[in-house]
Write a structure and sequence with these properties.
The chain is an alpha/beta fold. It contains 15 helices and 16 strands.
């Protein structure tokens, strides 16, 4: 078995943008893992300037080669739609010229961040005169299994390079051409900066058996990150033999309190639901205090109707919507509509008696991802921010801001809902570890 170089696979596409079959692409995950382990070691001898040079070269290649990437993306979309893929998946796959420009900007932003490798986190002298330092170091090799979103290829590769990690990327079948094209640009940038060529590797085959092999390679992969459906995340949680970030499923709520500025409430809820509905930080459920529910629903109805948002209303919300049900997509909510990550233009709505009922609902149905309160009462805001258990909590702001770029991290490897190791958007420091550096002068322990 041989590892197929990304550039070879891109070159082997047919004129219609098709990829070789799985049978034509032999991939040895073991060979890739061993190569990544060697590359991770070699990266330790490379400088921050080299890593940043690779990132800046990647940014320029994204712009220079955007036509090639868009052609591959078009072929992926055509094939996916022919296979009957859900439209929300197609929306996640879609790249435009502006999308590639945004990728390039994110890569430059990552390059501009301070070098994290070797950062001294603690520096002190022990009781016996020894020097003790705690120093930030790369984790080693990151494995990523992801679906649908090609920007993940660039975001994660760039963050891993900045952090001094090697990475093995395994994207989904639906975006194989696009991901292969993007990975070839990353590898070209790596080689141009004289970094180890296997610092970034992409699994060219869509054979699902290779995913199982990745999950068994704890001797090669230090951290496994799944990005995609709940099914993928749960499978990795159950089967990965190495540490894995297995959160990230977003069931996101916004509670509109009786003290809310209703103009703010309408704007925030609409943005959180409709600005981009296929992502994990999009709003799934609005909880609204009974004293302001009619006004809030009246303010949102026209905007939701124009945007094509479907409301799944509890009994009280259904009653309050009244005649608006003729112009707005509305269905009575079932129990399953609460606690569901829709990834679609669907919002469940529940009218609550008070703040305590809203908190209880979030405790029962939340996934610990992104939760928001819209309120002017400072006591309500403070209690919500302190008592709601989530990776990110927001006051009078859209859940859509739970994002590595928005938080100044450059990009994100994932948004973790785990509580150990990393929580929330995972940037550079969340894919690093530390070691103790101890310097003595012939010290021996009594």
């Amino acid at each position: 078995m041989v590892v197929i170089e990304t550039a070879q696979s891109v070159a082997s596409m047919t004129s219609d943008g098709s990829m070789p079959t799985d049978q034509a692409v032999d991939v040895s995950m073991r060979s890739m893992g061993e190569a990544a382990r060697t590359a991770a070691s070699d990266l330790g001898r490379c400088t921050a300037e080299q890593r940043d040079a690779a990132l800046r070269k990647l940014a320029s290649l994204l712009i220079e080669k955007s036509d090639e990437v868009l052609a591959a993306n078009g072929a992926d979309l055509t094939a996916a739609r022919a296979d009957g893929v859900d439209e929300h998946v197609a929306e996640r796959m879609l790249l435009k010229e502006a999308s590639i420009e945004d990728m390039a900007k994110a890569v430059v932003n990552i390059a501009d961040l301070e070098d994290p490798v070797g950062e001294v986190l603690e520096d002190r002298t022990a009781y016996n005169g020894m020097s003790l330092k705690r120093v930030r170091v790369p984790l080693g090799v990151i494995g990523v299994i992801y679906e649908s979103r090609p920007n993940v290829t660039i975001d994660i590769a760039a963050l891993c390079l900045k952090a001094g990690n090697a990475v093995i990327l395994r994207g989904g079948k639906e975006a194989i051409r696009t991901n292969s094209s993007l990975a070839s640009l990353v590898r070209a940038a790596v080689v141009a900066a004289d970094l180890p060529k296997d610092a970034v590797q992409f699994v060219e085959s869509t054979d699902r058996a290779l995913v199982g092999e990745m999950l068994e390679m704890e001797d090669c992969i230090d951290l496994l990150v799944p990005r995609g459906s709940a099914e993928l995340v749960h499978m990795v949680a159950a089967k990965a033999k190495m540490p894995a970030v297995t959160g990230g499923i977003g069931v996101c709520h916004a509670y509109v309190d009786r003290s809310a500025d209703l103009g703010k409430a309408v704007d925030v809820v609409f943005n959180a639901k409709a600005q981009r509905h296929t992502v994990c930080n999009a709003l799934d459920t609005m909880l609204v205090h009974e004293s302001v529910a009619k006004e809030v629903l009246d303010g949102l109805s026209g905007r939701f109707a124009d945007a094509g948002v479907e409301i799944r209303a509890d009994n009280r919300a259904w009653s309050l919507l009244g005649p608006k049900r003729r112009t707005l997509k509305v269905m009575p909510a079932s129990e399953d509509d609460f606690g569901t990550e829709f990834l679609a233009l669907i919002l469940s709505v529940k009218v609550v008696r008070d703040f305590e009922e809203a908190l209880a609902h979030i405790r029962e149905y939340g996934s610990g991802h992104s939760e928001a309160v819209i309120a002017e009462d400072s006591e309500v805001v403070e209690r919500f921010l302190n008592e709601v258990d989530a990776a990110a909590v927001f006051a009078n702001a859209s859940t859509r801001f739970n994002d590595g770029g928005e938080f100044g991290l450059g990009a994100e490897v994932a948004i973790s809902t785990n509580k150990l190791h990393a929580r929330g958007p995972m940037g550079i420091r969340e894919i690093m570890s530390y070691k103790w550096v101890v310097t003595g002068d012939g010290h021996v322990r009594e």
